[in-house]
Specification:
- The protein is an alpha+beta fold.
- It contains 3 helices and 5 strands; from the N terminus they run αβαββββα.
């Protein structure tokens, strides 16, 4: 769960997120009410987090001896999103420990400066076979440090 208030999450800007991906919504993302189904947001969160882990933290899913298990998640919705909109997803790390990391994802419509939603989850890293908690390896930790949120913009890693 985020420690930020709803007001703080709603006021996030794209520059608050050091890593970004673009997502083109699909017809099948919409629900019967004509907007993107809530469950799709969690697919987006999973996609940007795992893309970052693969590209910048040395994760090789089929070969990894250490995996992250989601232990909590959240999403705050501020504006509807629907097909055929394009979205910009932003990723940052709000908390980084020895064995866990809490991610925050901002979901922005391409032409808008305020997020349509902000959410995320916490990974606890475990041995992929025994499922026992394990300290993050150095490659993951160093990659995730680059996304660590700071109240001081000059302190970005």
């Amino acid at each position: 769960m985020s420690t930020a208030t709803t007001s703080e999450l709603k006021s996030r800007k794209r520059l608050d997120y050091p890593y970004c991906l673009t997502y083109r919504t699909r017809w099948s993302d919409n629900d019967q009410y004509g907007h993107m189904n809530n469950s799709i947001y969690y697919h987006l969160f999973d996609s940007i987090v795992n893309t970052y882990l693969i590209e910048h933290c040395g994760l090789v899913p089929a070969e990894s001896k250490q995996i992250g298990l989601v232990v909590s998640s959240y999403c705050q919705f501020f504006a509807p999103v629907a097909f055929p909109e394009q979205l910009d997803l932003g990723l940052r790390v709000s908390t980084l420990g020895k064995r866990s990391v809490t991610y925050e994802v901002g979901v922005f419509k391409q032409a808008e400066g305020s997020p349509a939603a902000v959410g995320g989850y916490t990974h606890v890293f475990v041995d992929s076979v025994s499922r026992k908690s394990a300290n993050m390896d150095d490659t993951k930790k160093e990659g995730l440090k680059r996304l660590l949120a700071s109240s001081d913009p000059a302190a970005k890693l």
